[in-house]
Write a structure and sequence with these properties.
The chain is an all-alpha fold. It is built from 24 helices and no strands.
């Protein structure tokens, strides 16, 4: 079963069960059990090996991994900061300010998208920050939590993968094998990252065209029937002002950036000092976010106490509240990480890598489209973009060693775009999970409403990569322009057709 299609079965079963039963915890655990069972059968390790693989190799190992622990701590600190902002009345004050300055439902959605684009440093940070800041505003204007979760998720990974200064750029640079060249490679790939670009375009277009399709339409109709919420939940204080939300968020952004470049050696002295770009390329994003969020938390508590918005005791009472708010996301992440361990131990990555290498010969012009589909499938089944980068980017570089070959950069872009697409669609993706947490939306509802949108962009992106491959002989710049124009026209045509159908429904 190792290194064959069976290696993908645990993830496929978990995803299918989650979509069918609407219950994510048990679905993930069933996938874990199947993966451990396959592994035990293949290794002939019996019941002892079966249980040890689930808990020893899987759950306990994942919860003791330094990167994962850092992400969990970051989640908890963000939960505490959200609780503090709500308790201080900052979220309610921002809601009151937004009600005066943001006059329409369209305006609320556009503001959410712009905030998501602004926070391009890291997708985890994006998901939870945008959710906590914009949730009171979108509630006031009758925007469903499902739509908010989509806007958050679609401005997380898709924006980070086209932002040269981000943890994602650093990851790609690392997988390329050379920091500076890796960043250069990342920048060159941006014009061909069609899925990310088209996703951002589609968000703006659908908001301005004022329609939804698929399951999202039913949730938007349901919230419209109930009416907009004007409640200011979570605030017992009347002293709260907009600064009580803006200051913590800005502090969080600044210190998370400082934390990330600190772990990359930016503040070292002498020959060990790294440039800003190199520091991002070599940073430990998990540790950087922990350091930055803790610093921001301490400053925020001091800020509230000095302003006498909250007493020190009330600030401390927010700690367990913030932790409790993040327990569902932490539980889903733990199960998703454990499921990833099962698929890794069964050789899922090696199996997919073999498919890519086998398709390279004789299909050169269609290879970008093929790589896009394979990257989608791998990221969807494993719930990780970065793991997909790690497998496919080195293969693309090895398959096309000449930097002058346009297919090389198009294929690498297709790998990155496909990984983001699969991550965007996957119920077991950490960013999808945290987008649900940020919007306080039921996770399965978020996945089922987002899927039609993501798949629509994926199909158009796939066709665009075929055009990019066919036109690659004209040069990188010409191919990028022709492909982009084709994709945008196809997306606009699709949206007009769907709006016409939505009006008839």
């Amino acid at each position: 079963m190792v290194g064959t299609f069976w290696s993908l079965v645990p993830a496929i079963v978990a995803i299918a069960l989650a979509l069918i039963t609407k219950e994510v915890y048990s679905s993930l655990f069933v996938g874990i059990i199947i993966g451990a069972l396959f592994y035990a059968i293949d290794a002939a390790s019996g019941f002892t090996g079966f249980f040890n693989h689930i808990f020893g190799d899987g759950m306990v190992a994942q919860l003791s991994d330094s990167w994962n622990v850092g992400i969990i701590i970051f989640l908890v600190v963000l939960g505490i900061m959200v609780a503090l902002m709500n308790k201080a009345g900052g979220s309610a004050a921002f809601g009151r300010w937004a009600k005066k300055h943001i006059k329409t439902k369209v305006g609320a959605q556009i503001a959410t998208i712009f905030l998501g684009i602004f926070i391009f440093i890291d997708d985890y940070f994006n998901c939870l920050t945008v959710g906590s800041v914009m949730r009171p505003v979108t509630d006031k204007y009758g925007i469903s939590r499902e739509k908010l979760a989509y806007l958050i998720d679609a401005t997380a990974a898709p924006v980070c993968i086209i932002a040269p200064i981000s943890s994602w750029a650093a990851a790609v640079a690392g997988f390329a094998g050379d920091g500076e060249n890796g960043i250069k490679l990342f920048v060159e790939a941006i014009p061909f990252n069609f899925y990310a670009i088209f996703t951002v375009f589609m968000m703006f277009a659908m908001v301005l065209m004022k329609f939804e399709f698929g399951k999202m339409a039913s949730f938007e109709k349901a919230i419209a029937a109930v009416g907009a919420s004007d409640e200011e939940k979570g605030s017992e204080e009347t002293k709260g002002k907009v600064i009580d939300l803006v200051f913590p968020v800005v502090t969080l952004i600044v210190f998370c950036v400082l934390g990330m470049i600190y772990t990359g050696g930016f503040f070292e002295s002498g020959e060990d000092k790294a440039t800003f770009i190199d520091a991002f390329a070599n940073c430990d994003a998990s540790m950087g976010l922990v350091l930055g969020s803790f610093a921001a938390l301490i400053i925020t508590v001091a800020f509230y106490c000095i302003r006498r918005v909250l007493s020190f005791k009330k600030c401390m009472n927010c700690i367990p509240d913030g932790f409790k708010a993040m327990v569902p996301a932490i539980l889903i992440l733990t199960l998703a990480w454990t499921l990833k361990t099962m698929t890794d131990s069964l050789g899922a990555k090696e199996y997919v890598a073999g498919l890519v290498e086998g398709s390279a010969a004789g299909l050169k012009l269609f290879l970008p489209a093929i790589i896009f589909i394979i990257a989608c499938g791998l990221a969807f089944a494993t719930g990780t973009s970065w793991g997909t980068f790690g497998i496919l980017i080195p293969i693309c570089i090895a398959a096309f060693p000449s930097t002058a070959d346009p297919i090389r950069i198009i294929s690498i872009s297709a790998c990155m775009a496909g990984a983001v697409c699969g991550d965007h669609c996957s119920p077991i993706s950490d960013t999808t999970i945290m987008a649900s947490a940020g919007a306080q939306c039921d996770h399965v509802n978020h996945v089922s409403t987002q899927l039609p949108y993501a798949l629509s962009v994926a199909v158009i992106s796939f066709l665009t990569y075929i055009i990019a491959g066919v036109t690659s002989g004209l040069g990188t710049a010409v191919s990028a322009i022709i492909s982009f124009l084709f994709g945008i026209c196809a997306l606009i045509g699709f949206l007009f057709i769907m709006r016409k159908r939505a009006k008839k429904a």
